Amino acid sequence: MNARLQRIWVLLRLAVALLVGWRFGWGWGLLTLGAHAAVLALGFVQLRWVNRPAPGWGQLLRAWGHEVVASELAFSWRQPWREWAEADHLPAGAQTGVLLVHGFGCNRGRWNGWMKKLRAQGTAFVAPSMEPAFGSIDAYADEIEAGVRKLEALTGRTPVLCAHSMGGLALRAWWRKYGTGHAAPPRVITLGSPHGGTRMARFGQGRNAKQMRLRSPWLAELPAVTDVDCFWTPCDQIVNPAETAILPGSRAHRVDGVGHMGLVHSDAAWRCLQTALTDSSFSTPRRI
């Protein structure tokens, strides 16, 4: 569903830009096409008053520039048109696996860069596109469980679970429903996940957006997971205040100069995943 909606949005933006360009001049058409960058800028400016300590203007400017590129790559190309460009990878004999869980308003195309690299190194992965797009986060638990079981059957080990944004909450909802069926807690990496909720959820549509509001009753009932690396940024224009992206008891990793979407392009997050895969290949017994 998200891919279809985003294709419509891309075509609508192009149509409006062409109309404005034809009527008022092509320079104005280009400015219309880039109007989203101005809207993004407002999200970063407000962080000067929301986060304490406040990120510097230099950090915010750098994050905004990266976010313009990252958001265009995600919402204008990978998610609407390239959702299945990288199929799930389940090679025979794989020793480790990764489950990749996208966030609100996204689909599996969000992970195309990571999936390409994981395939090149021979790591098994599954990346679901979670539906319904605007339904309850609890509804994603079954699909996550199916992916985990598929990777466990292939590798004999629990996969590393990596999630962006709302995906981190979906993993905790999955653990609430299916945790008792697993021998040990999984290794989890979350990138900009609103573990404590976010101010921006009040502007979102759907039941999942309501569940992500600050101090929502649904969030208060979610269980914690114990082996977690939380990546967060003081320049996160979507998940703020910034500390809400840190799950109590987790290993917190601060990334400066990037926005919410840019966390998926973080070298530090990718290195953390590689370390987790190395650790899991030795620390988790392979089931025969």
Total of helices: 11
Rg over CA atoms, rounded to whole Å, is 19 Å
- Along the chain, the helix and strand elements come as HHHHHEHEHEHEHHEEH
Q: Briefly, what CATH class of the largest domain?
A: Alpha Beta
Q: Reading side by side through the largest sheet, how are the strands ordered?
A: 2-1-3-4-5-6
- The proportion of residues forming helix, as a percent range, comes to 40-55%
CATH topology label of the largest domain: Rossmann fold
What ranges have pLDDT less than 50 throughout 5 or more consecutive residues? none
Commentary on this structure:
The chain is of the alpha/beta class and 288 residues long. It has two domains: 2-81; 97-283, Rossmann fold (3-Layer(aba) Sandwich). It has eleven helices and six strands. A six-stranded parallel β-sheet has the order 2-1-3-4-5-6, sandwiched between helices. The longest helix has 25 residues, at 57-81. The model has no long low-confidence stretch (mean pLDDT 94).
Question: Which features characterize this protein?
Answer:
288 residues, 6 strands, 47% helix, 2 domains, alpha/beta, 9% strand, Rossmann fold
Summarize the structure.
The chain contains eleven helices and six strands. With 288 residues, the protein is of the alpha/beta class. It folds into two domains: 2-81; 97-283, Rossmann fold (3-Layer(aba) Sandwich).
